[in-house]
Amino acid sequence: MEQHSGRTGRGLGRVLVTVYGILAFAATGRSTFVLVTKFSEAPVAYSLSTLAALVYILATVALALGGRGSWRAVAWAAVSVEAVGVVTVGTLSLLDPAAFGESTVWSRYGQGYGFVPLVLPFVGLWWLWRTRPRSADAFPDAKEAV
Amino acid sequence: MVLPLLLLVVALCAALAGWAVWFVVRDRAVILNQLWGGAVIEALLLVQAVVAAVAGARGEGEGDPLLFWGYLATTLVILPVAAAWAFAERTRWSSVVLAVACLTVAFLEWRMWQIWTGA
């Protein structure tokens, strides 16, 4: 098994960053389009799209930079916000379809994007945990988990 | 948008993705010849952009131009960025990155055709 400790942009992480990057592009494109054309129709939904886009951009950059130093904290925060966001907005959009419409990446758990927005944050959280920096002295038990 | 050109791009994307998946199975990293394949697709995407711009200027195309050009710009960016990102990784995961990028471009082509024809 390759050594992943402390690096988030290598190995499987490289695929993760690729998918994050594509989703960041998709979310940014979508939010820009609706902000320009129909913001007045549903400001909450469209502001949410923009928030989602920013979170994806942040997660992409933080994971790509290898999770070193404070970028790891940024990656944890962005991926966590994303996980909470997709579950919350996904659930609300099912309970009350009129709340957000189909207008955000996270509506209906990201159905419009093949549910990738639902799966991705949990893979991201697992990957951040998997690549966490460890020191043998601080975490003597961690060796067995490798 | 010209359907034969679009179908050619999609076919080449599928072929390159298949090649990359084969490399994943064989536990191999992306090689330079695969990037040349990506460059051929990128060149065709540029031709497609010119064709679409000319057709658009003549008033062809059903969907929202902003939406269409957003998709088109995305297809142009994906392969060069993904190729550089994949090539810096010398494991089989680089082949997964290339396959994902190719399939994304193919999917976006299909969406662009939907927008263009107003489907």
Describe the structure.
The complex is a heterodimer of chains A (146) and B (119). Chain A is mainly alpha-helical. Chain A is 64% helix and 0% strand. Chain A is built from five helices and no strands. In chain A, helix 2 (43-64) runs antiparallel to helix 3. Residues 142-146 of chain A have low confidence and may be disordered. Chain B is an all-alpha fold. In chain B, 82% of the residues lie in helices and 0% in strands. Chain B contains four helices and no strands. In chain B, helix 1 (3-25) packs antiparallel against helix 2 (32-57), helix 2 packs antiparallel against helix 3 and helix 3 (65-87) packs antiparallel against helix 4. The mean pLDDT of chain B is 94. Classes of the chains: A mainly alpha (146), B mainly alpha (119). Chains A and B meet through helix 1 of A and helix 3 and helix 4 of B.
Name some characteristics of this structure:
heterodimer; A: 146 residues; mainly alpha; 5 helices; disordered C terminus; B: 119 residues; elongated
- Beta-strand percent range of chain B: under 5%
Most strands sheet of chain B: none
Sum up the overall morphology of chain A in one term: elongated
Helix fraction bin of chain B: over 70%
Termini Cα gap of chain B: 14 Å
Give me the secondary-structure topology:
The complex is a heterodimer of chains A (146) and B (119).
Chain A: H1 12-38, H2 43-64, H3 70-95, H4 116-130, H5 142-145
Helix pairs in contact in A: 1-2, 1-4, 2-3, 3-4
Chain B: H1 3-25, H2 32-57, H3 65-87, H4 93-117
Task: Describe the structure in brief.
The complex is a heterodimer of chains A (146) and B (119). With 146 residues, chain A is an all-alpha fold. Chain A contains five helices and no strands.
